[in-house]
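In this section we walk through a basic example: taking a raw amino acid sequence and producing a predicted 3D structure, encoded as discrete structure tokens. The instruction is simple. Fold the sequence below.
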Amino acid sequence: MKHIITSVCLILLLMLCVYGQNTNLALRKPIYASSVYSNEYRPEEAVDGIKKEYGNMANTADGSAGWFVIDLQKKYRVLYVTMYPRERVNGFSVGLTNNFNSATNVSLIKNELCATSTKQFQKPDLETLYCKKPYLRSRYVMLQQAVTSGEFNVEELEVYGSEIYDDNHLGCYSNIEGTHKLDVAAVEQCSTQCTAYQFFVIKNGKECSCLSYTSLPSPLISSPLSNCNLTCSDDGYMCGGFSYYSLYSVKDCALNAAPASSSPSPTTLPPQLDLLSSGQCIITTHCSAGATAGSDVCPSQSCVTGWNGDVCDDRDCSVNSGSCGVHTCVSVTTGGTNTMSECQCKEGYYKTTYREDCKDLNECMYPSLNKCDNATTSCSNTAGSYECACLSGYEKKSDIYSCQDIDECKSSSLNKCNTTSTFCENTVGSYKCTCIEGFQQILNNNYSCNDIDECLTTCKQEFESCVNTGGSHSCECISGYERDNKDTCIAAPNKAAIIGGVVGGFFGLLLIIGVIVGVIFCLRKRRKE
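The resulting token sequence is shown next.
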């Protein structure tokens, strides 16, 4: 274990040297003390950057073991602390925490011991203590003297460490395409290059790209953290995968208390990052008594079951399955120092960032996420999936994603066409009732037609009359007239006279024949005589 701690310290020391992170994090930061000896020896004197032989110093009052607390104003990985004493110091300890309440200014709680010194020393000596747990994320640094009474006097306190990017890490993604800016060996290098943007991504363990929040894709769906299995070589942070991007926020995310309901409600909004209007990301806290946005500590200092961390934004897979419900809670270790846990969503569910609960994915909002044939079906979202419902005039076939046209004209039960006045014509997805010749469409009625009275416009010749029939008509000559070969009506001849003439002619002919026969008979008789 000792070798591991030593190795981690060496790595962090190398980071400080390479990336210039040897900045005194305590310089001019808020500082608090257990007591103040006098107004001349205020705690601010210990972080003013002045180290003189007769410079001012911070001094606690005589009494119980004195302490100083420095507020770094954000979380850092604290590597080491250096103390410049004014008078003799009989040992002291350094603690780290995120739970100091400056309003009450009382002793610290949940204090993680960074290092302890039992050495007695005084000016011009100084003492540097290296933290045993340099991977901790801490905002407050506490220095407490070892003795239980006596003044605690300090000329200057310095704190050194590295930026924390765990809270800026939003997740692993496959659908983000940034413009490759440069290759990096640490997340901070990429962040420094992208200060004019809201976000940056790293791929393949080194490829850094900057992004504005308007450039983020939609839908934005988080992939499992395990897909971003490459770390930056010098800091151990997640730096994407061969086909995946680790997304980070340039600015620290704001905090927002989770709603009262522990179960996520269905949403019809597209999967996008939860952002403030400025483009700043939001981290949801799960304190048992709620939390105010911007606070670094849960008021109750306890979390909803399945969550842990200072603001209860880290899942605890060992308790209540990390509040993942029906989904699986999975933990991934990054850089050998930090464990990140997330809900591994079942198919049909999604997260926008790795910290979120799984929500139902509305596949119907995006053509790329569903296979429904838009020409024959409508997509209907269901819990964890979707269905392709046939449009009117279509029916299912073996393919569940498309439908085929129904021929409504095959059966009278499938159409409303009036068979007397119309005939059914099948169309794609529907049908239409077309008027039979001699009928016309009825206003606001697509299924029946009215007979056309052709007599209103036809049969207009002289001595002609019109007879309308269902779907047709006929033109007839009025009484006493008949149609000639020119299709006109002319007066018909007197039929009785014609018949009388014919009969008279017939009898006349018979008479003539009889006379002729008589004459012939008389002539033959005379010859014989």
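Looking at the output, two observations stand out. Confidence is low (pLDDT under 50) at residues 1-20. DSSP finds three helices and 33 strands in the chain. In the next section we compare this with other chains.
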